[in-house]
Inverse folding.
């Protein structure tokens, strides 16, 4: 709290200006002003920009489901995949979306355990992003099985063949990892929402709003006896979500690493996938929050400092990813396995060289600009780089999956994968679904954790003069 | 405020964190038992000021997690090694190694349900009604005001004494809430 005291108590020693910490909420906003700023967005008239985004998003969602209906009614032949490229955009999109979710959990759980107070301004929106991204991700494994009506065989449910799922398969681990991830993220998000739903309940003017927010806030009163249990449960959920998020992308990487395919059979995959997931997720958080903070006038709560810190996370994880790309090549050479070496040479210089170098440019080179404070604090620059990160991380999964598969052991089997319009529109359609859900969230729920942001302001500290402490 | 119903509590409003924290200390020292502090966010140091014990939510988490792990391991053994054994390349029918990822995920899943469920059980939530919701001023507890309510059923409760305690503790507005 020292940084706040400096401004209010003249007798405190001044630190040099460049070492001073930026406050997390600018302009010393009071509690009521924070409530108004956040809750106001979910109240009042629906703004025009919302409709301008919502209508196209819903249309795109419709396209997504139309494509899925076409796929199910016709068969997976409508996609561009074939033998040997039996996994293509479907699994690429799955890993892409699941990865995006990871930033939400990192922000909500890992940064909470690390006592990074700046997370409070962004954790709610990032967690919402996680949930919607996992929903988009979940579509792909479900529809790629071909006979979708048998997808329930993935779950340990009794069926007429009396046969059970095969628990040695990483694909089954994935089913458990992803469904647990979705459920736990939802629980964590909902629990965080309870006090803020109570705020909306207490401000509600119409009967419907009073009823809905009243119901979902579970009769929250802000009792300290409740807060005591609540904070413990929140800490425990953060403690559970941390190993969960690390395990989810590790298990996703097992889908590849446990197989024998050159280019996939690599022990570096789990940490490399987790770092990549966090990298891509922060890319998406920035893509969403930079326009949002200016449209919704939240610059005092999601400050330049928040954006800058996220830029640093992108730089760190992007560099880890870059290291992993390099290390893969080194091991391919050092390991002395000709198939492995071929797979990697083919990745960089084969028919898909353009995808590989797009990936490297977007993921390794582009984020290095974040070494410069000027870039990290320029909203336009961060926004553009965040888009490149999203593109690059989609290409990473495409490169891993398609370039490893398209040249089989027998040259007679070699093929070149190209997507069909169904591949392309299903993927674009998931962005529609994602945005539709995110816009609904913005419209009806508090997009910033109101009670948590209040808790990190200087007024919330009983020993700070702003919190009412008297000097003796 | 409705005048009907039995007297529920005296509700005192406070302007800032420091006042409510010190007031909570005085109420605790005065020996009240059926009372509570209401704040828009968890106030650091309030558990100590109120003299609360550590929250036992962790036991629910542990129970959930232990159930998840045990059930996960048992399920996999029963399905793949006992009920319908499948021999895959001569590998053992059951091993804690290949079962671990699924059992691990189930540990976390049920542990999370335990944490949220434990919080709700200990807090007696959901609850559709609370007498304090009858106070109009209390609506600001989720916004920017701080409250202390001392319930009428507390053995030490006394209209005059309790009101005086809350007022000396720094409350500018004390009101009676009826159920």
């Amino acid at each position: 709290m020292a940084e706040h005291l400096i401004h209010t108590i003249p007798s405190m020693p001044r630190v040099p200006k460049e070492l001073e910490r930026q406050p997390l909420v600018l302009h010393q906003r009071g509690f009521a002003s924070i409530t108004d700023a956040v809750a106001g967005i979910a109240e009042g008239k629906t703004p025009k920009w919302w409709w301008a985004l919502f209508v196209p998003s819903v249309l795109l969602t419709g396209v997504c489901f139309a494509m899925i209906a076409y796929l199910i009614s016709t068969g997976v032949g409508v996609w561009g995949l074939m033998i040997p490229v039996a996994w293509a955009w479907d699994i690429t999109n799955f890993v892409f979306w699941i990865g995006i979710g990871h930033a939400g959990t990192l922000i909500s759980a890992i940064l909470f355990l690390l006592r990074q107070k700046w997370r409070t301004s962004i954790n709610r929106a990032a967690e919402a992003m996680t949930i919607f991204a996992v929903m988009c991700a979940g579509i792909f494994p479900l529809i790629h099985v071909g006979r979708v009506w048998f997808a329930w065989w993935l779950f340990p449910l009794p069926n007429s063949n009396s046969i059970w799922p095969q628990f040695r398969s990483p694909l089954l681990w994935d089913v458990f990892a992803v469904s647990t991830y979705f459920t736990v993220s939802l629980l964590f998000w909902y629990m965080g929402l309870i006090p803020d739903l109570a705020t909306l309940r207490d401000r509600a003017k119409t009967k419907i709003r009073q009823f809905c927010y009243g119901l979902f806030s579970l009769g929250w009163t802000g009792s300290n006896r409740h807060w005591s249990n609540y904070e413990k449960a929140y800490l425990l959920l953060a403690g559970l979500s941390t190993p969960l998020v690390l395990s989810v992308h590790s298990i996703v990487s097992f889908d590849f690493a446990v197989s024998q395919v050159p280019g996939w059979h690599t022990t570096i995959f789990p940490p490399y996938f987790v770092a990549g997931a966090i990298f891509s997720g922060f890319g998406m958080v920035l893509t969403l929050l930079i326009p949002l903070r200016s449209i919704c006038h939240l610059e005092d709560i999601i400050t330049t400092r928040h954006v800058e810190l996220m830029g640093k996370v992108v730089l760190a994880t992007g560099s880890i990813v870059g290291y992993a790309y390099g290390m893969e090549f080194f091991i391919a050479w050092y390991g002395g396995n000709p198939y492995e070496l071929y797979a990697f040479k083919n990745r960089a210089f084969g028919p898909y060289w353009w995808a590989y170098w797009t990936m490297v440019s977007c993921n390794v080179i582009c984020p290095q600009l974040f070494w410069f404070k000027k870039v990290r604090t320029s909203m336009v620059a961060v926004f553009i780089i965040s888009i490149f990160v999203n593109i690059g991380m989609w290409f990473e999964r495409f490169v891993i999956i398609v370039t490893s598969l398209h040249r089989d052991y027998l040259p007679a089997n070699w093929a070149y994968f190209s997507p069909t319009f169904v591949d392309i529109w299903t993927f674009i359609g998931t962005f529609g679904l994602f945005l539709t859900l995110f816009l609904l969230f913005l419209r009806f729920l508090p997009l910033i954790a109101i009670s948590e942001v209040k808790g990190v302001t200087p007024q919330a500290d009983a020993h700070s003069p702003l919190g009412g402490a008297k000097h003796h | 405020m409705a005048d009907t119903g039995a007297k529920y509590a005296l509700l005192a409003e406070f302007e800032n964190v420091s006042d409510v924290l010190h007031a909570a200390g005085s109420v605790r020292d005065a020996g009240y038992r059926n009372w509570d502090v209401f704040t828009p966010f968890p106030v650091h140091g309030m558990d100590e000021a109120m003299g609360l014990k550590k929250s036992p939510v962790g036991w629910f988490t542990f129970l959930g997690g232990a159930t998840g792990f045990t059930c996960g391991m048992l399920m996999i053994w029963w399905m793949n090694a006992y009920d319908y054994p499948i021999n895959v390349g001569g590998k053992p029918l059951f091993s804690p190694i290949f079962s671990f990822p699924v059992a691990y995920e189930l540990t976390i899943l049920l542990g999370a349900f335990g944490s949220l469920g434990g919080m709700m059980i200990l807090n007696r939530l959901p609850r559709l009604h609370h007498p304090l919701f009858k106070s109009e001023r209390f609506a600001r507890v989720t916004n920017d005001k701080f409250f202390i309510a001392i319930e009428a059923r507390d053995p030490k409760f006394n209209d005059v004494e309790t009101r005086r305690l809350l007022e000396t503790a720094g409350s500018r507005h004390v009101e009676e809430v009826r159920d």
Remarks:
- Residues 152 and 158 of chain B are 8 Å apart (CA to CA).
- Chain B touches chain A through 69 residues (CB under 8 Å).
- Residues 57-83 of chain B form the longest helix (27 residues).
